[in-house]
Amino acid sequence: MFRSLFTAATGMQAQQLMVDVISNNIANVNTTGFKASRAQFQDLLYQQDRSPGAPSETGMQVPAGIQVGLGVRPAAVQKLFTQGDFINTGNSLDLVIQGDGFFQMSRPDGTIAYTKAGAFSLDKDGRIVNPDGYPIEPPINIPTTATSVTVAFNGDVNVLTSGQTAPTLVGSIQLARFINPSGLQAIGKNLFLATDASGDPITGAPDSQGFGDIAQGYLENSNVNIVQELANLITAQRAFDLNSKAVQASDQMLQTTSAMKA
Question: Which end of the chain has fewer surrounding CB within 10 Å, N or C?
Fold first, then answer.
């Protein structure tokens, strides 16, 4: 009975984590470039009262032993990097990656962060930056005399200035991709950092060497499937209820045992 109490408690804790992950997914259903997370679990150790294949009292071999599980634990919360829906904004500095790859952003400490959110704008120096002011890497400056900005599918950024009839190339966007993007560390602000699990970034031009191409005037919406998340939420809630009933049943059995008289 004591064992069942602790086993059911691990189930309640696991379902609480499941609800936490689902809640974060639902909260970011309209976050540009957001990637949904999925909680994964493992069963805990098993108490071996009798091992499978052990000899029986008659000298025969038992076909199945007695193994009692001790509950569940979280194994991982994995990011799912499936493509989200594209939204047509018409903004010349809204960019989307059609396929594999991340935009590279230079943080104030000099490190590089990676993002799928292509909602860019210009700072006072004419640099292309994200909503937090982090410039794209390598940096691209748009001259103040520019009347239009065009980003080609291969990442080339061209501007047209007043008095010119031909566009001028001012820079090229470089993308990064990873062998294991699920190993990236999410740090908020739609940014990820490389880790040993993700592997070192592989950089290159869009539409080359396995990289996706860039579309101008679009944003990638969150890849959260709200219907699936709501179904998962109901499942997690019911599982939490069942585990709580197992705790109540164990408590009632203990109460009955403690009330017995010799």
Answer: C
Q: What is the pLDDT of residues 113-155, one digit of tens each?
A: 999 999 999 999 999 999 999 999 999 999 988 999 999 999 9
Number of structural domains the chain divides into:
2
Backbone angles phi, psi at 247, to 5 degrees: -65, -45
> How do the residues of the chain divide into helix, strand and coil, expressed in percent and rounded to 5?
25, 35, 40
Domain enclosing residue 131, as ranges: 86-220
pLDDT digits (tens, 9 = 90+) for 246-261: 888 887 888 887 777 6
216 and 231 housed in the same domain: no
Quick one: average pLDDT of 14-28? 96
For residue 235, what are the CA distances in angstroms to 22, 135, 229?
Answer: 11, 42, 10
- Same-domain check for residues 132 and 29: no
Instruction: Identify the bridge partners of residue 86 per DSSP, sorted by sequence position.
Output: 220
